[in-house]
Amino acid sequence: MKTRYLLFWFDVEDCTMPRTDEAAKRLANILTKYGVRGTMKVVGQKARMFRERLRYDVIDALSVHAIGFHSDMHGFRPQPAEYMSKFDWLEGSREFERREFRGLEAVRLCWDKDIVCYGQPGSNWSPQVYPVLRKWSIPAYVSNYGYIGLHAQPFRYGGIINSSHLYGKDVQGREVSHSIGLNFELGAPGALEEHLKQFDQSYSALENGGVISIMNHPCTLIKEEWFTDKQKSEELIEAGYEHFETFLKTVLSYPNVKTITADQLPVIYEDYAKDYIFSHDELLSLAKESTEEINFHKDEKMSVSPAEMFGMFVRFIHFYIKWERLAPGAVCRHLDGPAASAESDTDVTASGSDFSDSINKVYDFIEQNNRLPDVIAVGNKRVSPDDYFTCMARTVIELIKTSELPHTVRFSPGINKVRSYVDEDLAVKGWSGTMMLPGFTAPKLLEQAYLQTWTLKPGILVNDID
Predict the structure, then answer these.
(1) How many C-beta neighbours within 10 Å does residue 296 have?
(2) Which of 128, 138, 368, 411 could staple 348 via S-S, CB 3.0–4.6 A?
(3) pLDDT digits (tens, 9 = 90+) for 236-288
(4) Are 418 and 453 in contact (CB under 8 A)?
(5) Structural domains of the chain ordered from first start
(6) Strand, coil or helix: what is 165?
(7) How far is CA 337 from CA 123, 254, 278, in A?
């Protein structure tokens, strides 16, 4: 029987009611009592308040667990999606870093340990955060919301493992949910039975193993609802803690379950493609899959994003142009997607010389910028990354088979399959969430979400943990 990995995580965020500090402490201690480490995603302002209130007992209780980051000022205007929605890819990333770094430093100051994940407040998801998370050495994205989902299990996007969309259709086409929220309903009549039913359904559907995401906001043990200072009755508060502890004990009794923290997601879903040197035969296989469509590759051992293939194809062809011989292989490295959308000119055919010149320029661009170009000049024509990708795939095949570049190349429309994993309905729903300004929309964020699907690939369970 395959292992189900239980990811218990907590958004430690409320700054309006001091008693919610105690809720975070009690939940952390319940986990510790049963030998479970959770992932505590802490807001920067909350971390500062722990220190101002001298709540070192809370800091110590949480220190047993993994610490994540949950924005600097949760709920403060402008929200992350609001301020990033005005910017393009590069500007949005810089603005996120400028506004949120203070919160990251506050959380680090409280615990003096590695920050294991980030997750946005509410529905404030944005693709521009990923380059910044990599810069900050944050290895995982943990949330219950995002525009992107892939078979209801963890996936890589933006070069980082994500557990932000563990619901929808699984790889077998079944409608499933591996995301369980334990929040305001804790302690209410019948809620425990419903939560255990959800867990059992998720557990049963993971015949081949996988992750079940179990989340809580500690403030929901204390408050009656979001954005209020109304407190639950003492009886309901205590019932909520009992509910949580009983749920924890029960799910731990299932066979073949292990609990993990966010920093263990990159371990069990280790990226074997990273820095792997693909041989001629392996490149040929990838290229044959890519002559007409843009999609990720997956086998039992590893997965490869379209952007990673794009980079390998460029490097392989560039090596031949420079040295007039075949490279022994091509190394797989992360590239971000394009920063802006573009379309090809119609009926583009180019000489081998113009194509070689374009390869050299694209090679220089990706090495300097670590992302795909928005559009590629081939002679006096413009070619989109989609159409350039499929043309490179055909060129790699010919190059490996004949050790010669074609005299002319033709660019035909590539069918972009990875864009289908963007959920526009969910994006629109998120924009109207309770935290967002009335009438808020973010078409630029949606465009960037599509562009960065070049980085999308499934996580593959390759390792276990002790």
Answers:
(1) 24
(2) 411
(3) 999 999 999 999 999 999 999 999 999 999 999 999 999 999 999 999 999 99
(4) yes
(5) 4-269 (3.20.20.370), 277-416 (no CATH)
(6) coil
(7) 23, 41, 21
